[in-house]
Amino acid sequence: MNTKESLPTYQEALTNLRGNLGEMLPKEALDVFDNDAQNLQKEHQSILKVEVGDKASDFSLSNASDETITLSKLLQKNKVVLVFYRGTWCPYCNLQLAHYQNSLDEIHALGAKLVAISPQTPDESLSIREKNELKFEVLSDNGNIVARNYTTVFKNGDAPVDKMTELGFDFDAHYSDDSRELPFPAVFVINQDGTIAFAKAEGGDYRNRVEVSEIINSLKS
């Protein structure tokens, strides 16, 4: 199977997801979430905290099995594709991680390891890894300590959290604190010498995500 020709892009998959969400959620609820994304896009124009050529900050975080994973140790053997996402409750995060999973063999063939980070607890990280059958590390960054070195962190608004509660989703149960802070989704490719070779976020609108083709092009270069 030729991956490039047969797999949909994130944007193509997003169109299907939006159709499904329109059937699953009341229009009023979807409007609340969409307005939230649109407002964040207006409020946050500059997302990234580091740029291409900068040195990546080292870190040690727990994975889904509560094992400690250290960036510098990963870099001893491979480049690292670092992905910051919001949580298991976010359909766009699930779609993005599944999208990257589909190209994982090619990422590995280009000498890189994929690592995804969110502020969720290890139990929640395990949940998203099992639910999506992910074959890469999913790490827990409690308090967004690591995320702040790479991407912007913001407090999730009352309107989307209240609407989630009405729909039966307990947002706070996914995290170890009550700050309701989330990282804006962002992707980085880190060379083995610790320099950042690729850095991108699609703005404050968390519905949009970096295409895996951009990551692969960076790894090839």
UniProtKB/TrEMBL annotation:
Catalytic reaction list: a hydroperoxide + [thioredoxin]-dithiol = an alcohol + [thioredoxin]-disulfide + H2O
Keyword set, alphabetical order: Antioxidant, Disulfide bond, Oxidoreductase, Peroxidase, Redox-active center
Pfam family, one: AhpC-TSA
Domain of life: Bacteria
GO CC term, one of those recorded: cytoplasm
Matching InterPro entries: AhpC/TSA, Peroxiredoxin_BCP/PrxQ, Thioredoxin-like_sf, Thioredoxin_domain
Protein name: thioredoxin-dependent peroxiredoxin
Family: Belongs to the peroxiredoxin family. BCP/PrxQ subfamily.
GO biological process, one term: cell redox homeostasis
Gene Ontology MF: a single term: thioredoxin peroxidase activity
UniProt-listed SUPFAM superfamilies: Thioredoxin-like
Function: Thiol-specific peroxidase that catalyzes the reduction of hydrogen peroxide and organic hydroperoxides to water and alcohols, respectively. Plays a role in cell protection against oxidative stress by detoxifying peroxides and as sensor of hydrogen peroxide-mediated signaling events.
UniProt cross-references to PANTHER family, sorted A to Z: SLL1159 PROTEIN, THIOREDOXIN-DEPENDENT PEROXIDE REDUCTASE
Enzyme nomenclature, EC number: 1.11.1.24
Domain Thioredoxin: 50-221
Residue ranges the record marks as coiled coil: none
